[in-house]
Amino acid sequence: MVSPRERMVVSAALLIRERGAHPTAIADVLAHSGAPRGSAYHYFPGGRTQLLCEAVDYAAQFMADRLERATSAVEVLDELFDFYRDELQRTEFRAGCPVVAVAVEAGDPDKPEQARPLIERAAAAFERWQQIIARRLAGDGVAEPDAAALATLVLSSFEGAIVVARASRDVTPLDRVQDQLRSVIDAKTRKGSR
């Protein structure tokens, strides 16, 4: 059984990925999650910042779990792109990455105490995903320094392709980037296995 607190974290992540961080209010999270009024400050005494941080942590864990199940670098690539292609189409191109939304929107210079923990959480999520991708690349024979650099390219290209696909309301950017990255990975893994 999922607790009201857990439902609120998941709801926050889902709302952030579709609306962005700023427009996602605690009242919206309560309505989406079905959590009782007044429970937000009970479960999240740090307020909205704590809730957003935990939503980023949830999104980071969700994607890390998916990536960890892949047994090769190409499977990691396909997991990233195929999952988000489906999500974009299912949500009529509203579903972006909640970690990107928080990272982009957390730069309020008037509230650095609120922005810092959010940016740190987003950076940790991206680093974790890159490490998983790099491990899979290294496992497929790519030299470690190249694996780290290629993992950064994969993740950055993936996130950028999501943004372009959302803006164009078309999955073609995802398809093209996935194909190009697959070629790069295939070339690197063949070279590493010689």
Structure description:
The chain is mainly alpha-helical. It has one domain: Tetracycline Repressor, domain 2, CATH 1.10.357. It contains 9 helices and no strands. Helix 8 runs antiparallel to helix 9. The longest helix is centred in the middle third of the chain and has 28 residues. The termini are far apart. GO terms for molecular function: DNA binding. It comes from Mycolicibacterium parafortuitum (Mycobacterium parafortuitum). This is Putative transcriptional regulatory protein [Mycobacterium tuberculosis H37Rv].
Mean pLDDT: 92
User: In percent, how much strand structure appears in the residues?
Assistant: under 5%
SSE topology string: HHHHHHHHH
Tally of alpha and pi helices: 9
Largest sheet: none
Radius of gyration: 18 Å
> CATH homologous superfamily, by name?
Tetracycline Repressor, domain 2
Distance between the ends: 50 Å
- Total individual domains: 1
What's the overall geometry? elongated
The count of strands amounts to: 0
Please name the defining characteristics of this protein.
9 helices; Tetracycline Repressor, domain 2; single chain; mainly alpha; 0% strand
Short overview:
The protein has 194 residues and is mainly alpha-helical.
SSE map:
Elements: H1 4-19, H2 26-33, H3 39-43, H4 47-68, H5 73-90, H6 98-105, H7 112-139, H8 144-168, H9 172-192
Helix pairs in contact: 1-2, 1-4, 1-6, 4-5, 4-7, 5-7, 5-8, 5-9, 6-7, 7-8, 8-9
